[in-house]
Amino acid sequence: MIEQSGESVGPTPFQVGKHQVDEAVVLSVAGEVDMLSAPQLSEAIQTATAARPATLIVDLSKVDFLASAGMTVLVTAQAEVVAPTRFAVVAHGAATSRPIKLMGIDTVLPLYSTLDDALSDLAGR
């Protein structure tokens, strides 16, 4: 941890928020997605898909670190989402889209740079 002005600065705590945008359910993820937090992400995705939304978007824009455990959760979710629900991931930058692309996961996951891009593309389908 780095001390600045008497306050400790560490990693962002893991959080998953859920909100609705038209027909889409958006899970906004923040912090580090690693082997300790991946089960929480998996549970949030399963809970959201149980309601059979038209679209489920996992937004990783505020994720500081994405470990292989987190990528496994995303690939598993893509495989388990049942039509007509569409599934997409928002990831941009070195912490999220880079490892996804390096692992070749972007070939199986619909990947978008911004939430707006995902919403506008998926709304038209």
Automatic annotation (TrEMBL):
InterPro entries: Anti-sigma_ant (IPR003658), STAS_dom (IPR002645), STAS_dom_sf (IPR036513). It holds the Pfam family STAS. It comes from the Bacteria. The lineage of its organism: Bacteria, Bacillati, Actinomycetota, Actinomycetes, Mycobacteriales. One of its GO terms (molecular function) is anti-sigma factor antagonist activity. Residues 14-122 form the STAS domain. Belongs to the anti-sigma-factor antagonist family. PANTHER family: ANTI-SIGMA FACTOR ANTAGONIST TM_1081-RELATED-RELATED, ANTI-SIGMA-F FACTOR ANTAGONIST RSFB. This is Anti-sigma factor antagonist. Gene3D superfamilies: STAS domain.
